């Protein structure tokens, strides 16, 4: 029994440890963010409302049907429902029936409302998909920030490890009287500066992890981390396409553009609905009713009065009515005319916004295209600078080891190579993110592979 309990506790501990040590990939972060974002959930509820609105618009084409009934009893003065004469008797009566009506013509407003409801549901879907696109980009950017900070931290720690070796060796040389104590102080200052870099790097990693977790709406910051992966510059043929080609393709699938275009179509439907109020409205109606009263008396075949049964009265006193009504708008204080004018203004505003959104998209793509080229050149320059700094550092180290360079000059050489390596990391991830933005505009899903 003790063995089973111990085994069970070990298995539970393993599950807990695995849960705490989960490392999130970029794809997992993006998927989780899209599936659990509160704003997305709100937009999804809005979409459900729009689908209900479409059902309402469809229902406007159908006849309505209403049933009614009433039961009453009166004592004292009342009107006999059969003779319509005053009476002081107690009587019990039941009335019932149903009615229906349908709109035959209303200036095509119901047709336009139905088409508008369908368009509105489509527009809400575009808005929802555009929000998901923005979240994917934001998560990718935050994820790359964590990667960049982690890689920088690894570099800081590696540099500190080298400095520790130099510090140990310099102590030995100072203690043996080969090197002056100033060299040791200079190396110690360099080590202290690198320790500060490590502390700052750890802080940046933590902050960037928290920022990413917040985008994912995860509150367990301590146990949240991303996969420890090393990413190199990904291959891409995106620059084989001109910015104009990328823009033309983006117009065909970008959800923000589709949403803006659907707003123009919605404004057109609103104008048609407003114009429909100028026309007459024609509707038809049909009513059926019947009643029962215990005060009812009718003559039989022998001309003797009797009270018919409940069922017989329902058949005897039932009746129908039907008809049509026509409402013609003549004057309504210019409200119809003004509504048409407002709808025209709204349509023009929607068209202008659509053109502005296309212009903004073209500007963003042009900027992203330039950024990819610029940041790649910055990365190449940083790599070349880092290589030159490493060569200079190696040469300086050789001179420092044989006593031909003082500790201050050696520390400067080391500081320059540290900064150069940090620039390589920064410019690499800056370039990767800009590249992913441009690819995203071209319809390529976000991936670091």
UniProtKB/TrEMBL annotation:
A GO cellular component annotation in the UniProt record: efflux pump complex
Keywords, ordered alphabetically: Cell outer membrane, Membrane, Signal, Transmembrane, Transmembrane beta strand, Transport
Subcellular location(s) of the protein: Cell outer membrane
Signal sequence annotation: 1-19
Source organism, top-level taxon: Bacteria
Pfam families found in the cross-reference section: OEP
GO MF, one annotated term: porin activity
Keyword Membrane: yes
Keyword Nucleotidyltransferase included in the entry's annotation: no
Xref: SUPFAM superfamilies: Outer membrane efflux proteins (OEP)
Sequence similarity: Belongs to the outer membrane factor (OMF) (TC 1.B.17) family.
UniProt-recorded name of the protein: Outer membrane protein
